Amino acid sequence: MIRAATSHHPGLSGHSQRALFLGLAYGVLLVWLILAILPFIWTFLTSIKRPVDAFAYPPVWVFQPTLMAYQQLWLEEGFSKYLINSAIVSVGTVTISISIGCLAGYALSRYRGVSGFWILFAAFVFRALPRMTFLLPFFYIAQLTGTHDTHLLLILILVAINQPFTIWMLRSFFAEIPESLEESAMIDGCNRFQAFWYVIVPITAPGIVTASIFSLLLAYNEFLIPLVLTATRATPLPVAISQFGAEDIRYWSISAAGAVSIALPIVLVILFLQRYLIRGLTAGAVKG
Amino acid sequence: MKPREFWPFVLPSVLVMSALMVFPLLFTVYLSFHNFTLGESPRFVGWLNYARTLADERFWSALGFTLLYTVCVIPAQILLGSVLALLLNEVLHLKRLLISGYLLPFIVTPVVGTLVVGWMFRDRGFNSYLLSLLGIHIQWFSDPMAAKALIILYGIWSTVPFALIVLYAALQAMPSEPLEAAIVDGATWLQRVWYVVVPFLRPVLLFIAMIGTMDAFRLFDSVAVMTKGGPGTATETVMYYTYGVSFVELLLGRGSSIVVLSVLIILVILAPLLYRTYRDIVGSR
User: Fold this and answer.
1) Do the chains contact at A125 and B274, CB–CB below 8 Å?
2) Fold observed for domain A78-243
3) What is the pTM of this model?
């Protein structure tokens, strides 16, 4: 720690100076906490207000809470359809992305040949490019092949976009596992894949969870790709809510209920698995 | 590992990336030299699309705003992230609560984050109300400067958590000996931060800046949801402009030329990092 201890200032004792510093630190930290969460609290409150209260100005803090907006959203607007689309695309993307990503990440952490280097470097370059680079041809091909507005197309493209990041991250987790482990399994008669599957994968499980979380965030939160490649059947949550009309005050309560409904599942999952997320954020940076 | 073991393992991933990234990239380059709308076959037009793009005022204004966004958001993100990470590293209580709260803008769906922040600034929104108490009335969505500021403020709000967590983790991994030596030498807190901590964090700061640059050039969600590029074209980013040309005007050839140009710009800006990564992988082999 970078303790702000021992004073050399006359007048203030080291102890009280430290207390002052800590008070200031907590103050700044709490101010940022409020800035970070206030929009969400405001939105949640709007979502349980009657339109007349959501409309009120100056804003009211005391009001009769109601679930009317949620009822309208889920029953009349058919929000569940979009949730199902999002769930299919997210689960599909994470499953495929992590399966092929584990295989590649493992091999890249073990292989010393020159082609391994070029795969990693190419992946890194692709990580830097905007999604639009790949989207234009897909739009064209989707129209030609009739795959526009399908879950499968969305899943495939999200898997591809996600691969560079996934193999880099998984490679770094596999690299932490000593090679002697699978070597001894292979001496005992396993082939390479069995050693990978029965010995290495279970040990790397926390790292695989971490990579899965990042895949999930990408698939669940993505907006541009489904905006271009879906129309009605495969529309996921972010595209659906963007079309609700945020500007129109009369729909504030329903839009707010939609925002809360989209945020809640992902926030709950991530808060539950928070330490894995932080592990992932750290892995890239500290070695970076 | 032997090559005949290596290839079966990497093949699925390499196939997916080649089919869905390398091929589309080449196809985009091909399209950029053709004039074409859906239902017709592409017609070769040489450099015409590039000429039209480079002559379009909207392209330069979008590029200008993207660069403005980058030079405003990244320093602010790094400065705020560093200050908060340093302070978080000093305190002992409430850490879990603080970190969970800080993560919220980072993990929440960007479209939702944009909506909830946007609502605060609308006519009857909470922030507009607070500002009106101070006698400040800003037309956030119809004044070009204010709309730009709003997109940039949202950018800072949504990217600080990433910098904060990454820097905090790096601080926790910092060896304590140099700091203790500095304390013995009588360095103040600020001197210790500046002369000992900042040099240690340099690679991490560089990493955050590079990720930030990549993200700035793919900035789309907040613009599409909050301002739709407006008022006029004030808040159009390169990606939002590309989207408009390609999928609203349906000029796929023109759109492709913008994509190729922005890829070149990104590669030039990121060249130092690409070179460093190249050296790192060579070094680790």
Assistant:
1) yes
2) MetI-like fold (1.10.3720)
3) 0.90
